[in-house]
Amino acid sequence: MYLILHWLLSALSLMIVAHLVPGFAVRSFGSALLAAVVIGLVNATVGIVLKVLTFPLTLLTFGLFLLVINALMLQLASAMLEGFHVSGFWPAFFGAIVLAIVNSLLRSVLL
User: Fold this and answer.
1) Which of 16, 35, 24 is nearest to 95 (CA)?
2) Structure pTM?
3) 30-87, pLDDT tens digit by residue?
4) I need a labelling partner for 41 at 20 to 30 A (CA). Which of 60, 80, 81, 96 fits?
5) Which residues have CB under 8 Å from 90's CB, separation 6+?
């Protein structure tokens, strides 16, 4: 049950970010559900490898480089899906920041 709630909150977070960040678009809630799964899978595979490989750079930037990796993961997920679109690096970068904030807020209120 917790996993389903986590998935729904991630999709809701994507819908909210799509309304707040220009260049970040989600066609429907169904697309947001699918995008949440794909983003999770991309982060669990490619994201882990990138985070390990760029660990020294992440240390030098005090963790800020993780925002760049998260933006790249959003762009990769966008390239794989039809109903989820990020129009460039900067919308992905700001979308990653807003997504992290919205996700945290929703989880702290609802879980």
Assistant:
1) 24
2) 0.85
3) 989 999 999 999 989 988 898 899 899 889 988 889 999 999 999 999 999 888 999 9
4) 60
5) 23
Q: Is the Cβ–Cβ distance between 92 and 2 less than 8 Å?
A: no
Residues 6+ apart with CB under 8 A from 17: 24, 95, 98, 99, 102
Say how far apart CA 101 and CA 61 lie, in whole Å.
20
29, 44 Cβ separation under 8 angstroms: no
- Name the residue type at position 30: G
Torsional sign, CA 29, 31, 34, 39:
negative
Beta strands in 4-92 (DSSP E): 24-26, 84-86
Which amino acid appears at position 78 of this protein? S
User: Cβ of 84: how many Cβ atoms within 10 Å?
Assistant: 24
